[in-house]
Amino acid sequence: MRTYDITLTISPDLPTWPGDPGVELERVEKIEDGSNANVSRVDMGVHTGTHVDAPFHFLQDGITVDKLNLSLLTGRAYVLHLPDVEVITAAVLEEAQIPPRTRRVLFKTRNSDLWVKEEPGFQTDFVGISEDGAEYLVRRGVKLVGVDYLSVAPFKNSRPTHEKLLEAGVVIVEGLDLSEVSQGRYTIYCLPLKLANSDGAPARVILIGV
Amino acid sequence: MRTYDITLTISPDLPTWPGDPGVELERVEKIEDGSNANVSRVDMGVHTGTHVDAPFHFLQDGITVDKLNLSLLTGRAYVLHLPDVEVITAAVLEEAQIPPRTRRVLFKTRNSDLWVKEEPGFQTDFVGISEDGAEYLVRRGVKLVGVDYLSVAPFKNSRPTHEKLLEAGVVIVEGLDLSEVSQGRYTIYCLPLKLANSDGAPARVILIGV
User: Fewer C-beta neighbours within 10 Å, C or N terminus of chain B?
Assistant: First the structure.
């Protein structure tokens, strides 16, 4: 069974959401300078790179990332490849024929091409899920939604899609690199850092072929 | 199959290694102040809480955490309970009768009691693995070693144990909370953040009963 690492590497070069904190990663103790060990420090927004949104990201009474149920974050998942779609709407999803009883869906779109390019910088015209697309996923009983750019929603229209998903207890995983993964069934292990009372957390996410 | 979260929650209250950066976790955008979403920032040493040491932590030519092989970080693991041991030596390990062909071992010691106490602060008298204990594990073909305090080695004697393990390509996982886990066999998913060129990374670590 092949294991796919669908996580972005965190570095200061990674594009970040406009207005969010950037990434600082520096070695503060160096063996070459006489320290006993090399020790680095990282300073970043919690929605950096591959990360999970907790309900508290958009909902004031929502739970925080350290409280998310591991049973949602791990288990069977379906990767849906939508190479020619600009917005993931309810109509797109109906036509796509997601297998029955799918609880976790990752969307592979043209966004994933961005992660194999050299420093493309932050993009605003990425593919996201519309409000009615989010409603469709909730109606279908989906409990985890993964996307291959830094927001599950189209740019400049973040709230409706996030709200619909988070109010229904759907875990949102953003910033996945699905460039090496084909459409089909996998087992996902999506493990976000356990940050106390946080609205989100960077995660390491892997898929295992089934 | 029960899933055990053996990860410490990252917060400013978590004890950190003397001299290492502390933990800052703050909400920099707040819905109650008119922001579109809640957004937090985290600033911490990469050896905070439950974390992985890469060879580069102690070896100048060692690989960094983003290059660690996922096949070492996931798979069958054995939890060994050593409730009355002060130092994990080769003699202790020989007597403990670790099952043949064990590739990943997690040591549950009295250290795990510290994680269920209220703010005990950093402790110096934690249980660690001696240099000959590390040599024994390498000889046995172990490829991942997990401990329930912030260093795999006894305090004030970090280098020999780390060096022996890291030179042999053994992944070191520190800061595990094994208070809820019994001795026995599990499947481990140890997923560190993919931090570019870093000597270590905080991780989320789970065990699944087999």
Answer: N
